[in-house]
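Worked problem 6 (solution included).
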Amino acid sequence: MNIAVAQSGGPTCAINASLLGVFRHATKYEDIETVYGAVNGVEGLIYNNFVSLNDIIQSDDDVELIRQTPSTVLGSCRYKLPAPDSGDAVYETIVATLRARDIRAFFYIGGNDSMDTVMKLDRYFEANNIDIKVIGIPKTIDNDLPVTDHTPGFGSAAKYIATSIQEITRDSSVYSVESVTIVEIMGRDTGWLTAASAVLRANGEVAPHLIYLPERPFSVKQFVEDCRRVQATYPAVIVAVSEGIELSPDEAEGFQSGKNDAFGHKYLAGVGKALEKVVTREIGCKVRSIELNVMQRCASHLSSKRDITEAERIGGAAVKAALNGESGKMMVFQRISDRPYNVRIVSVEAEKVANHVKYFPTEWINEAGNDVTEDAIRYTLPLIQGEQNFRMKNGIPQHYVLPEALPRPKK
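Solution. The predicted structure is:
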């Protein structure tokens, strides 16, 4: 038999480690002949676009470089499958593609929307007596997948965010003038990443002085009052704010596009600039907004070793689950303890994850709604531990690039 693996959704520092986990674990079984990589997620199944990972990953050097390379080696997509009972021919196309290569297990590395794909494929296969196993492997920097304690990619992004805010704090503190620096952090629906900035307190830092998450209503008036209050003690105020906090249409106008992706999710970004305008108008001090943007997804030079190691582990566990006959499942972490940190990997039904959101616990947000509690620090701190030993070239970390450009199908 052969198996296939694909990557979907937004890039992370750990998604290629999960790919390696699938490949390296699969090569331990004589029954598995070839591990195929589907190019551009589920679109690779639709357009018959595959590469053989056995041909690509041939040495320990390849393994090491792929492990330290951010983003998706196989490319990604945001393709929404129709309902399994819709009669859409796309499912017949996928089955024909998989059968032509004798692929009997498919592994999909991704987030909420990718688990929707896992769930739909499994339901179609089961309804039509097709013996192809489908297993989801979690991935998202947003850390918003239900059931699992955390997601691969989150720890590395959290580490980059905390480090960046620490450096921004040093930069903003050199002048005697009063200032407000607003750091906009990814998080469409949830505030996990923004809350992770609080881990700096474990090292004695005070910043960020204010933290705002989508899980609490946001008041521009209260935000201005908070900045003024903090500035009375700390002239250089550092604010961490989730891109997903809700501003009124007038406040957000001109800063957010209003467009949606294939799954109906709004393209955000722009909150920091909107609040910069507010501070300029209401306080009048020096102010700047910094949007960390895609850097927080792919800053592999600051990746968490634990994050990368766990990503590879959970990829391997997915292969074992499929060979044990499981399908329509997603692999998850269950935290056993914080100190010492310990987790185990189990599987759950993908339908418990698909199209659902795990919000940041409101009990971990302070009463004023402008900071987080020690619980957030205790939860996040173990996930950012450890540093990668990077292979460098000319002073720059090396990345793995396929020997030939991935074939791009005409759609």
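Discussion: The mean pLDDT is 93.
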